[in-house]
Design a protein that fits this description.
This protein is α+β, with helices and mostly antiparallel strands. The chain is built from nine helices and 16 strands.
Length: 327
């Protein structure tokens, strides 16, 4: 849309790098300047349409950059070609974007390797589409079922047919020893049965990094260490989530080691976490994941500081968590 716009946000947003996206948009013809520090918001954008053409990305900091470029591609003056010269961060989110764009009438062309994606100049078409439950939000309740003895949780509307990569978190819990029923449109996770316990795993979570915090909390209640690999992009989220996890899970009695893009969680002795007040760093996922630890905490329990940060994605989270006590 023609016009001049300023994009800004809270102080943390001014620390989140956006240069990769700005560089790509400039190649497509966008007029964007930085309002303060090079590579970071605020941005000044002059809207005058995009030419399209070809953009090549290396290993990106966020799949959100890829998604945004793909979604605006149909409205470029010419066909848009997005090529990759490196690994695709959070590939499952990119695949979900491609699938949804096709459903809404944009005939993208790409192979399974996603070396190049062609987005033709076109327009989205209105369709009737049932919105799935949010798999990321569902993960906290699946995690709760995995760590609380004799419990189970079923999420309706999510299953094997889901486009969301985060639905795979149920499989991660299953790898740790939780029971799993995975239908075409439902997921049920159950706590380990027969006196068994969860056990630590060594896993690459680059394909669903938003689940890393939840997994790290589940790891507090597993036998043996859990190693989460290839999640360096957690450093550029709402907070540096790797450092935040190290600080807050240490309060709960865990031993946390960060080595490059890997984080290792050694659970507290006997999986008995310490009562603690958890800082959330204005990060909704820190609040929701650490709240799950509170379900297994002795009195006085786990205190979540600044719980309203969950309003970003799940305003009613703590109400739903409280309702579980009456099930």
């Amino acid at each position: 849309k023609t016009g001049t716009y300023q994009i800004d946000g809270e102080p943390r947003m001014r620390q989140r790098p956006i240069g990769e996206l700005v560089d790509a948009l400039r190649l497509m013809g966008a007029q964007i300047t930085y309002g303060a520090n090079e590579g970071y918001p605020p941005l000044h954008v002059t809207g005058n349409g995009l030419a399209g053409g070809q953009v090549t990305l290396g290993t990106t900091q966020s799949s959100q950059f890829i998604t945004s470029l793909l979604m605006i591609g149909p409205y470029c003056e010419h066909d848009f070609f997005l090529r990759f010269d490196g690994d695709i961060t959070s590939r499952s989110y990119v695949e979900m974007t491609i699938s949804l764009m096709k459903i809404f009438g944009v005939d993208l062309e790409c192979d399974q390797r996603l070396d190049e994606i062609k987005v033709p100049t076109s327009r989205y078409q209105a369709v009737t589409y049932d919105i799935e439950p949010d798999a990321s939000s569902a993960s906290y309740f699946l995690a709760a079922a995995a760590i609380i003895p004799s419990s189970r949780c079923t999420i309706q509307g999510l299953g094997k047919n889901s486009l969301q990569g985060d639905v795979g978190f149920a499989d991660v819990l299953h790898q740790m020893g939780a029971g799993l029923l995975f239908g075409p449109d439902f997921i049920t996770v159950m706590a380990p049965s027969g006196g068994q316990s969860l056990h630590g795993i060594d896993i690459d979570m680059n394909h669903m990094p938003d689940m890393a915090q939840t997994l790290a909390v589940v790891a507090l209640f597993a036998q043996g260490p859990t190693i989460i690999r290839n999640v360096g992009n957690l450093r550029v989220k709402e907070t540096d989530r790797m450092v935040a996890l190290q600080i807050e899970l240490t309060k709960l009695g865990a031993n946390i080691v960060i080595d490059g893009d890997m984080i290792r969680i050694d659970p507290p002795v006997g999986n008995k976490i310490k009562p603690a007040a958890i800082d959330t760093y204005d990060d909704h996922r820190m609040a929701m994941s650490c709240a799950i630890a509170g379900l297994r905490s002795p009195e006085p329990g786990v205190i979540i500081n600044d719980p309203t940060c969950v309003n970003k994605t799940f305003p009613g989270f703590f109400g739903y968590l409280d309702r579980l006590r009456n099930q």
